[in-house]
UniProtKB/TrEMBL annotation:
Organism: Geotrypetes seraphini
PROSITE patterns: G_PROTEIN_RECEP_F1_1, G_PROTEIN_RECEP_F1_2
Record localization: Cell membrane
UniProt keyword annotations, A-Z: Cell membrane, G-protein coupled receptor, Membrane, Olfaction, Receptor, Sensory transduction, Transducer, Transmembrane, Transmembrane helix
Domain G-protein coupled receptors family 1 profile: 39-288
Record-level GO cellular component terms: plasma membrane
Species classification: Eukaryota, Metazoa, Chordata, Craniata, Vertebrata
Protein name stated in the entry: Olfactory receptor
Membrane disposition: Multi-pass membrane protein
PANTHER family: OLFACTORY RECEPTOR (PTHR26452)
Predominant place of localization: membrane
Length: 321
């Protein structure tokens, strides 16, 4: 504690060990970010303008898309700036804000994925009561609860993390402020923080995962009771997109957070977060649009409508000069 100093800023190392690839990485991540924004905005528009998508499942999907836009916007813009900047610094306050919203939105996604699994469970296991059980008021309450619980969970971790004295180094081995690399910079024992991360964070994340798992166990058991193979495939196809997203998100998140900090590899710390912070939000709209007939149908309608309007405008120009 004798060498403790007041840290005013941190240095985000990120991919600074690859100086010759900074411009290439900038282009890659910019493309991923633009794809994320475009895909998720398109999902939101489709679920709002197409009457056939006025269902709880697509309401939750639009909420997830909005969440992914916010989630990626917390980290990627700063990372893109750092790729082009000579210094990769971030102030203490900015780091705290970034961590708070990153953990908040990640926690909200855990909850929302569990809510979406429950929605599929009700749709498959109780189809007649589905409109009553999953009415608009219930759907709204589930989403609001997900957001409030996510912010509460993040508050605990952010306060615990930034109460630590940082004195050994200012270098964060990551492209954004995250809990594991920040704990490495503390000049006191972080056992209490790790216990909180494992208990509170683990309970929250594992709780959402277990609820999701229970929902899918009931869904699979219900599908197995269906005699027609065509009906079984059709029923399960309504869940596959969500299941893929669940595996991608929970798999990479648990790999990163539910391990002792001392065992973290710096190489993995730089690589694994790319999947759940950048790649997964980019893939989500692609997964849902390619594997969902209703979404593809809505997209085709909009494209056909635009093409028809364009042809009419061109024909009008030809006729009337």
């Amino acid at each position: 504690m004798e060498n403790q100093t007041l840290v005013k800023e941190f240095l985000l190392l990120g991919f600074s060990n690859l100086p010759e690839l900074q411009l290439t990485l900038f282009c890659v991540f910019l493309s991923l970010y633009v794809s994320t924004l475009t895909g998720n905005v398109l999902i939101i528009i489709l679920t709002r303008v197409d009457p056939q998508l006025e269902m709880p499942m697509y309401f939750f999907l639009s909420c997830l898309s909005f969440l992914e836009i916010c989630y990626t916007s917390v980290t990627i813009p700063k990372m893109l700036i750092n790729f082009l900047a000579k210094t990769n610094t971030i102030s203490f306050f900015e780091c705290a804000i970034q961590l708070y919203f990153f953990i908040s939105l990640g926690s909200i996604e855990c909850s929302l994925l569990a809510v979406m699994a429950y929605d599929r469970y009700v749709a498959v296991c109780n189809p007649l009561g589905y409109p009553i059980v999953m009415n608009k008021a219930v759907c709204l309450r589930l989403v609001v609860t997900s957001w409030l619980s996510g912010f509460f969970n993040s508050t605990i971790h952010t306060v615990m993390t930034f109460r630590l004295p940082f004195c050994s180094s200012k270098q964060i081995q990551q492209f954004f402020c995250d809990i594991p690399p920040l704990l490495k910079l503390a000049c006191i024992d972080t056992l209490a923080n790790e216990v909180v991360l494992f208990t509170v964070g683990g309970f929250y994340g594992m709780g959402c995962f277990v609820l999701t798992l229970i929902s899918y166990i009931h869904i699979i058991l219900a599908i197995l009771k269906i005699r027609s193979s065509i009906s079984r495939h059709k029923t399960f196809s309504t869940c596959t997109s969500h299941l893929i997203v669940v595996i991608l998100f929970f798999g990479t998140s648990f790999f990163m957070y539910l391990r002792p900090t001392s065992k973290h590899s710096l190489d993995w710390e730089s690589l694994v977060p790319v999947f759940y912070a950048v790649v997964t939000p980019t893939l989500n709209p692609i997964i849902y649009s390619l594997r969902n007939k209703e979404v593809k149908g809505a997209l085709q309608k909009i494209i056909s409508r635009k093409v028809t309007l364009y042809r009419k405008s061109q024909l009008h120009k030809v006729r009337f000069g």
